[in-house]
Amino acid sequence: FQILEIIIFCILLYFYKRKAVKHIVVLLMMVALLGSLTVIAVKAVASMITLSVQGKMQLTYPVFYIMIVLMTTSCVFQVKFLNQAMHLYEATAVVPINFVFFTTSAIISGVIFYREFQSAALLNVFMFLFGCLLSFLGVFVIARNKKEEHLQIPFIDCGHVPGQKMMGKIQPDSHSSCYGTLNNEDD
């Protein structure tokens, strides 16, 4: 499964870097795949530390340090791609899609890599998946139909300041040629 994840990630990275496909799904699928690697590495590191504390020293094995490097690297690149998605798209689109992709990839990787549902009853597995579906549905309901609010007035009206005489507009007219610049009083 990890090899399949790596192959899919490399294909997405190729399209992202070489073909300049900067679609939100491509970016967030890379984030989700890196997230699943992070989840696997964190669980491995935590298990090895727990075993070491219990007296079965695991910190001398090189796989512990490989997992720490994998965990750190995948976290850093996950944040890098997520930041790029946030710069290209609005947070109202990125956050829900990232939540669904990350959660799904983390569940699938945990189920396959650690065989988490192997001894679980069918009803428990169904209820878990039903809970995930309800969570995703909730994210969809909250995130849909978000409309941007636009100010009708191009400047902020601070109102009347007690004891001060109002001299004019707080900000210049947005349709004038000097909007956003300071006026030189000498001219």
TrEMBL record:
GO CC terms in record: membrane
First-listed, main subcellular location of the protein, grouped into a coarse class: membrane
Keywords: Membrane, Transmembrane, Transmembrane helix
Membrane topology: Multi-pass membrane protein
Localization per record: Membrane
Membrane-spanning residues: 24-51, 63-82, 94-114, 120-143
GO MF annotations in UniProt: magnesium ion transmembrane transporter activity
Family stated for the protein in its record: Belongs to the NIPA family.
Protein name: NIPA-like 2
Native species: Podiceps cristatus (Great crested grebe)
